[in-house]
Input
Amino acid sequence: MSLESYKTEGFFDELFASDGVPHPAAAGLVEQLDALSRADLKRRQKQAEDILYQSGNTFNVYGDKKGTEKILPFDIIPRLVSAADWDKLERGINQRIRALNLFIQDIYNDQKILKDKVIPAELIFSSACYLKPCEGLSPPKGVWTHISGTDFVRDGDGEFYVLEDNLRCPSGISYVLENRAVQKRILPKAFQTLKVRPVSNYGDHLYKTLKFIAPEGKDEPNIVVLTPGIYNSAYFEHAYLAQQMGVPLCQNSDLVVEDDTVYMRTTQGLKQVDVIYRRIDDEFIDPQVFRKDSLLGVPGIMNAYRKGKVALANAPGTGIADDKAVYAYVPKIVKYYLDEDAMAQNVPTYICEDDKERDYVLANLDKLVVKAVNLSGGYGMLIGPKSTKAEQKEFAEKIRAKPRDYIAQPTLSLSRAPTLIGNGIEGRHVDFRPYSLFGEDVFTLPGGLTRVALKKGSLVVNSSQGGGSKDTWVLGEENYYGVAE
Output
C-alpha cells in the first residue's frame, strides 16, 4: 500500500485530514493510489518523465553549470481541489481581476484613486512598474489584463490566500496542459472515476479572448504570438500556445511597422497583424518608446497600438498591479472600484517604506519573509526562520537603503501534499497558480499549476530554485459527469 505510512506532521495536507484519514473529496484517489505498490508508482513516475522529455516541454535556467535546458520536475501524485473550494476561488479571482483592470485604467488616466487618497500617489509614481509612456492609454474593449495568473497558498487554517498577482506575462500554462495529458496516460482509472474538470480547451478560450480585442471590422483577425526567441526561459510555452491556437509564432525580426500598421513578413509578402499576444516584457517591446537598447522589440509598435491599428495582450503598463507593494492595497482597490469586500484574501503585508512598519520588519527579520517588490522566481527574498544572522544583517542594510523596494509578510505554514521522493512518499510544500482570461467575460481555467518544493522543508517552490509541479484536479459537483478532453 503506497500511502499507509504517510504522515501529515501537523501541516494542512491537500489529501489527508489527518494521518491515514483522507479528505472526503480525496478518498477515491487515495484508495486507488493505495492499490498501487511503490514499485508500480515509481515505474509510472519514470514513464511520465520520459513522456515529458520526449515532448520537449523545457525551461531554461540561466547560469546553471549543469546546463540551461531542463524539464520541470513532475510528480505523479495529483493535487486535488474540491468543488466547494474551487467555487470560492473562482469567484474571488473574478472579482480581483475586474478590480485590478479598473485600477490600471484609472492609474494611467484619471487617477481618481490617488486623488481620493486611497493609495499614496508616491507609491505609484515611485514604482519601477509605472510606465509614463502608458499615460492616456485606453486598450480595446477596456481590457488591460487579458491573461493573468494569481498565486495562492493555503495556510495552516486550510484557507487559500493570494500571495501575488501576475498580470504582465504570466508563464506556466503549458505545464498545466502537458501535465494533464501525461497524467491521463499514467493514472487513467483515477482520472475517469473522480469527475475531474477538463483543461484541454484553454487554447480555444485563449484564441477567443484575443479575437475579442481585435480592431473593429476584423472579423477574422490575424493573431500572432510574439516571443523573445529560443533562448527565453519560456520559449517552449510560446511555441506550444501558438500551436494550440493555430497561429504564427513570431520574433521581432518577423514584424515591421509601416504607416502605424504592424505587418508580418511572409513568403508571399507583408501581411497585416491585428492582435499580438506578446511574451516580451513592457520595457523591451518598443525601443522607440521604452528601452532604446532593446534588441527584442518592434520599433513603432506602441504608436500603432495607440492609434488602434493593433491590439496587444496583455496591454503595456499592467505591471503596476504586479508591484508587491501595490499588492498590499488590493483589498482597498476592490472596495473602491466595485464597492465589495475582497473575497480572495491577501497575506498580511508590511510596507517597508512606512516608518512604523519598517521598524517592525527590522526588529523581526528572523520571523518574516522579506521580498523585493519587483523581482520574481524566488529571487531577492529572505525567509527569516531559515536565514542566518549574516543574511538578516544584509537584508536590514538593503531595507534601510531602499525601503520602497521591499515588503515583508509572516512566514506561513504552507500546506503540503504527498510527493514521491526516492523510494518513499513524503509531504512537500505547495502553492497554486490558476490562470484566467479576460475578454468578453472572465474565464478561469478549472485547474492550474501546482508548484511543489522538492527539497525537504523548503518553502520555495519556483522552478528556478529547484521546485517541481503536480497536475491539479478540480473536482466537479456530485452531479458533474465531466467532459472528455
